[in-house]
Amino acid sequence: MPHSDYDLAGIRAAIITTNNRVLAGERPDRGGQLAVEQLAAAGLQTSEPVVIPEEHHAVAEQLRDSLDEGNRLVIVLGGTGFGIRHESPEVVREAIEVEIPGIAEQIRAHGLTNTPLSPLSREVVGVTARDKTGALVVASPTRRAGSPTTPSSPTTGCAWPPARTPRWPRPWAM
Questions:
Q1: Closest C-alpha to 88, from 47, 49, 142, 44
Q2: pTM, to two decimals
Q3: Omega cis (within 30) before 2
Q4: What's the mean per-residue pLDDT of the chain?
């Protein structure tokens, strides 16, 4: 993995998939499982992905629970499109103190390698606090088009963890 100079062994991460078809058993949660595998390979402590309905209150409640459990990285997969129930970006914005648009831009740019529609996704990335208590929260698509679950993607690869960022809080490193 890039940036092997980071010790991620003590960092807990959670994956939340918001997708009604996965919840109904109509399709597997490939994105959530792949994200768990890649984060574990990078050295983070992960648990099985949680699948929830595409509803604002469900995403908000699960995100709050994941943060309360001590996870320092929470990735919300799904709900970043234009659908009526796609509210993951709004939920993440409610939870974060500082938005980090550069990482979201990298996720969209990475998605262009798979689909020209990647710029239409509404990723949001930010930290919940400016000090060592903060957690990194990511709202990203579930599909390989731009999700952080794709190999060498911004969240699990080139941007996670960010290279040499001593001037802003790195909650995953504290």
A1: 142
A2: 0.82
A3: no
A4: 83
